[in-house]
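User: Sequence in, structure out. Go.
Assistant: Echoing your sequence, followed by the structure tokens.
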Amino acid sequence: MCSLSAKAFRNLLQGLVKRNYFGEQIYSNEALLESLFGVSSSEVGDRGDLVAEIESFETLLRAAGEGNWDDIKMEEIVTAQLARASPLFSAEQGQILIAFWSAEREKIHSALVKVSTWNRQFQDIAWRVDVKAVSKAHPELNEPVVFFELSTATGGGGKKSINDGSNSGGRTQKAKFEMNREEVGEMVKALDQIQRKIDENS
């Protein structure tokens, strides 16, 4: 069973998540052993038992991330683990793990989606309304026009695995275009239809 205090156990989970899903390689086994378990650098090589313990939690968090576990699934896993003769963690640590996963799972899922996406994804949209003269001869005939700037970015698919510690950011591209009143109206109708279809399938 893990011997860490509640605070140190939470820090262990945070370090493993940052290492595995956000590429922060400063959270090596050696660093975790020194900072959380109080193992000096000269003793690290002799503490294979603690390394195995860290790697067990790492395996659990990877399975949770790759399986996109919800809170109920994590609770089931914790309950099953605590029912073992030699559980990996205490009941208090199990509750910390459940709470930690509930708070972090959406960010972890987003990181996994980003690194596994090959095609371009919507990133942001900017717009402004201006008035364009329809006729030079009749400047009073003005038409409102909406100018759009659509930003998309490539995902990290095809690059290093997120578990290899790469922070593979995507390349952003921008598309600029304009639409008049009628075109905006048609776009809004199309978006309403898309929303209704999403609602029907949710």
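User: And one key feature?
Assistant: The helical segments are 6-21, 29-36, 48-66, 71-82, 91-116, 181-200.
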